[in-house]
Design brief:
Elements lengths: L37 H11 L15 H11 L12 E5 L2 E4 L4 E4 L2 H4 L8 H11 L13 H13 L6 E6 L2 H16 L3 E5 L8 H6 L17 E4 L10 H14 L6 E6 L13 H14 L2 E5 L23 E4 L10 E6 H4 L15 H16 L2 H23 L4 E7 L2 E6 L10 H14 L1 E2 L1 E3 L5 E4 L7 H27 L1
Parallel strand pairs: 3-13, 5-6, 5-7, 7-8, 8-9
Antiparallel strand pairs: 1-2, 2-3, 4-10, 9-10, 11-12, 12-15, 14-15
């Protein structure tokens, strides 16, 4: 099937959900006696899965293997790639490698492509801007696209107060600037982040990140005045009450609240496993921040711009943060990021205190304006909610049918979903090896997936919201076939 012809999404509009996502355990009532043999299931599912077509274009002069060899020789080892293939072209939710093999993309360039690969309106806007000028540096000669995008972000961000925005280039840069702004606005140094969080790869953002491998290993020490609180994860036995108690204990033992500038939190943990923050937690944090004069930062870099069914995931809680960091799907594949927040907070630094040579590049600004317009015009907020409901149901079905007692959890908000795998439901031991096996078999069948989670035992779904129903269904069939392959492989290994 092909999804290369773009049409506005026809999903029915529905009200965005305002509550935390439901969590689903799969196969909890299934008995081992009722489970067919893994090999039989694999054969049945594999037979029903879409057949991977012969490459639709002539193989390129450069093969994946040849390019991998060049990559090994030229690119730093620390830059990892999840898939051993090289892109040749892409359209919406489909990608072709240099050998002509077609893939359905459920990774979306790590949540960058809510509007899909090469959305025609985004490409057209970028090309139009390229014909005018590509760079002046906003600090030298400003330009209208930067101002227009700031106005758009100010209008979209939650909160009944005046807002201003800063545009930069990467998500880590946005978080760095949010910290800088918070410190300048409050006159305080401390920043509180949460376990399992991910905020970037610079030294400051690594200090905020709550996951050691592979990001923080061997690169410390990290900046001072960074503190960590427990993230509320019911599956791990940490309730909202527990997390808040941990925060209050932190105030007593290490982080004097009168010296804390900001609390930063992802509304849905990204690298940490796609755990949504309960609305109750957001409301409690808002009260705590107001009590102590602390700024509340929502890091929306991965969750923003429709991925969860609202413009910003924090909107599900009804809480308005003081600052929001944005990037990824804001520009449909073009590199741009930013900070949007209370006008008086954003104005804390003197002229020259914010900026960057490439920050708010005019081509990326034009692309971002077009991507935001496309999200609105094509009803992608409602589409995200519908997709999330559809995929959650399909994942539960395939878990019960194909991988009973292995798919431990299905969680997320809207179309920002993850499935977590364990060795068995009794011990709930994270099964990283099985997760890697599913991803590997999926790639061989023509589906791109990515892992996440503290143990790397969850698979996150970031398919473009513009993908057709047919492409989504094909991808889900490939996912189940890969799941069956992994189960059969594990059973065969155990039998040896």
């Amino acid at each position: 099937m092909s999804d290369t012809t773009r049409k506005p999404t026809s999903a029915k509009k529905s009200s965005p959900r305002k509550t935390a996502a439901k969590r689903t355990s799969v196969s909890a009532t299934t008995t081992e006696a009722a489970v067919p043999t893994a090999v039989a299931v694999a054969q049945t599912v594999a037979a029903a899965a879409p057949v991977r077509p012969t490459p639709s274009v002539a193989p390129a002069a450069q093969s994946n293997a040849a390019l991998l060899a060049r990559r090994e020789a030229a690119v730093a080892r620390g830059v990892a790639s999840a898939a051993p293939i090289f892109a040749a072209r892409a359209e919406n939710a489909e990608l072709w490698d240099v050998e002509g093999h077609r893939y359905i993309d459920f990774a979306g360039g790590i949540a960058v492509l809510n509007t899909g690969h090469r959305h025609p309106d985004v490409i057209a806007a970028a090309k139009t801007q390229e014909d005018l000028y590509t760079h002046t540096s906003f600090q030298v000669v400003p330009y209208e696209p930067y101002v227009a995008l700031a106005e758009k972000l100010n209008a979209l961000a939650p909160g009944d107060f005046a807002k201003k925005s800063l545009l930069v280039t990467t998500g880590a840069e946005a978080v760095e600037n949010a910290v800088k702004i918070a410190r300048a606005a409050t006159g305080r140094p401390g920043i509180i982040a949460f376990s399992g969080s991910y905020h970037g790869r610079t030294l400051m953002t690594l200090g905020l990140t709550g996951k050691v491998a592979p990001y923080k290993k061997d690169v410390g020490p990290f900046p001072a005045d960074i503190f960590r609180a427990p993230f509320p994860d019911a599956r791990a036995g940490i309730t909202v009450a527990d997390a808040l108690h941990g925060l209050e204990t932190l105030f007593l033992t290490d982080a004097d609240p009168s010296r804390v500038a900001a609390i930063i939190l992802e509304p849905v943990l990204g690298e940490g496993g796609y755990h949504p923050v309960p609305a109750e937690m957001w409301h409690a944090l808002r009260e705590i921040c107001d009590k102590h004069g602390i700024l509340l930062i929502s890091d929306e870099i991965q969750a923003g711009f429709g991925r969860t069914g609202t413009w910003f995931a924090v909107e599900h809680s009804g809480v308005a943060p003081d600052l929001i960091t944005v990037a990824k799907s804001m520009a449909g594949g073009y590199p741009i990021a930013g900070v949007v927040g209370r006008a008086e907070v954003m104005d804390a630094l003197a002229p020259g205190g914010l900026g960057g040579t490439y920050g708010g590049n005019p081509v990326a600004c034009a692309a971002a304006l077009a991507a935001i317009d496309a999200i609105a015009a094509e009803g992608l907020l409602a589409r995200s909610t519908t997709l999330g409901e559809t995929m959650r149901a399909r994942l539960a079905e395939m878990g019960a049918r194909t991988a009973p007692f292995r798919m431990w959890d299905i969680r997320g908000l809207g179309a920002m979903l993850a499935v977590e795998f364990v060795t068995d439901f009794d011990s709930a031991t994270p099964d990283t090896g099985f997760t890697k096996s599913v991803i590997g078999h999926a790639l061989r069948r023509g589906l791109i997936l990515l892992a996440c989670g503290m143990h790397g035992n969850a698979i996150r779904i970031m398919v473009p919201l513009t993908a057709s129903d047919a492409i989504i269904e094909e991808g889900m069939q490939l996912f189940e076939a890969a799941l069956a392959d992994a189960v059969a492989e594990r059973m065969a290994t155990a039998a040896e």
